[in-house]
Design a protein that fits this description.
By secondary structure, the protein is α/β, with parallel strands linked by helices. Helices cover about 50% and strands about 10% of the residues. The protein binds adenosine-5'-triphosphate (ATP).
């Protein structure tokens, strides 16, 4: 019996970092095809040529950032002649801020804090690339933030036409997007489209079996042997598949492990998993709400403000139109996108035309959704 009890200085974790959300695993299972496409896009840079541009698209938690970071780390290990720069556009959402990050990566220190003009910053970057014969590859994660702040055109234009200002300068861009409806052809200017022309790399949601494989890998390296049963792994995987976001499963495993430790147990129980889910399910909500457009948040807010957690589509549209002035086609597209992101569910009542009679229900407690919306 005592062998089941965990002493105060003992733990169920072998390597707890395997359950951190920013942990980059050695192998990205089930993303071989996407990694191959990414490598193909950047490969010209290894030969000193301009890389192909790329656009990685997929719902939150489908491995886009991880795949790009893995390819970047392989590039950095292979050569100093290719400089990959990762930008989180939520944190750096202006052209100046992005080029300041590029400068920092190239020179190893930030641009002068007294501030220099964009023109000067840009020309120092371009000169450096030519003089040192280095090729620049910039990943723009959460690219939708750049689109929203109207900076996307300027950033891509400056980056991809650098050679016109400084002949011989070579740079490529990888846009990372969790908004599947964002249409580059519609939302970027023709001048930018003509130089961007990205290779589309799609990241579909993981199947239940794929989720299990990925979670088992974390369990193998992250937990001591025998901490969680096969049956409970299945349960965690099923909860994860409901949102399609791997973060839910990874975070659940960590919380379940901590719950077991709190009970001084060497093994995770059903109850530990259920309690973990109560917290981890909001991990998906946090990340998904981050990826929404202002109008999509406004749409969710209409349901939250109604005081109910479900509304008939027609009534919801009336409120939405009052708030945003947008028409039915935009509304219809947005409701479908929110369903795709598993933030709402849609039930047909069989009456009305063009979806007017659908019941739109929030998948989360309205209070929890409301807390995370800031429109
Ligand atoms: N194939 C995989 N193998 C192992 N871990 C994975 C895999 N795909 C995703 N993950 C893990 O899932 C979590 C989310 O992945 P990641 O941040 O790459 O997703 P994303 O698609 O960029 O999400 P978002 O659009 O919300 O930024 C990370 O902790 C990552 O390590």
């Amino acid at each position: 019996m005592t062998k089941d009890i965990l002493l105060w200085d003992q733990t169920v974790f072998k390597e707890q970092e395997y359950f951190e959300l920013d942990f980059l695993p050695e192998n990205l299972l089930h993303r071989e095809a996407q990694m191959r496409s990414l490598k193909f896009s950047v490969s010209p840079a290894l030969r000193g040529s301009t890389p192909l541009n790329a656009c990685c698209r997929g719902a939150p938690g489908t491995g886009k950032t991880s795949a790009v970071l893995k390819v970047f780390s392989e590039l950095e290990n292979a050569t100093q002649k290719v400089v990959p720069v990762y930008i989180n556009c939520q944190l750096d959402s202006t052209r100046y801020a992005i080029f300041a990050q590029i400068f920092k990566k190239l020179f190893g220190y930030p641009p002068p804090s007294s501030g220099i003009s964009f023109k000067k910053l840009f020309s120092q970057i371009a000169k450096h690339l030519v003089e040192k014969k280095r090729v620049l590859i910039v990943a723009l994660d959460d690219f939708n933030y750049l689109m929203a702040s109207k900076e996307a055109d300027e950033v891509l234009y400056s980056l991809l036409r650098m050679h016109e200002v400084q002949p011989g300068a070579k740079a490529g861009a990888i846009a990372i997007l969790s908004d599947l409806t964002l249409d580059m052809a519609r939302d970027l200017t023709p001048q930018v489209q003509s130089v961007f022309l990205p290779e589309e790399i799609l990241f579909p949601q993981y199947s239940l079996e794929e989720i299990k494989d990925i979670l088992k890998y974390r369990i193998k390296y992250g937990f001591m042997q025998g901490v969680i049963s096969e049956e409970l792994v299945d349960r965690v995987a099923r909860y994860t598949a409901e949102t399609g976001d791997l973060r839910v499963g990874i975070n659940m495993l960590k919380r379940a492990g901590l719950n077991a430790e709190r009970r001084a147990s060497r093994t995770i129980s059903e109850e530990d998993v259920e309690r973990a889910y109560e917290g981890s399910r909001y991990v998906h909500l946090n990340y998904t709400i981050r990826s929404l457009k202002k109008e999509e948040k406004a749409l969710l807010k209409c349901i939250v403000e109604s005081g109910k957690d479900e509304m008939m589509s027609g009534e919801l549209y009336d409120r939405f139109r009052e708030k945003t002035g947008l028409g039915y086609t935009s509304f219809y597209e947005m409701v479908n996108r929110l369903e795709g992101l598993k933030l709402v569910s849609l039930n047909n009542t069989g009456k009305g035309v063009r979806g007017q009679s659908r019941l739109v229900s929030l998948m989360y407690d309205p209070k929890e959704v409301g807390k995370r919306i800031d429109v």
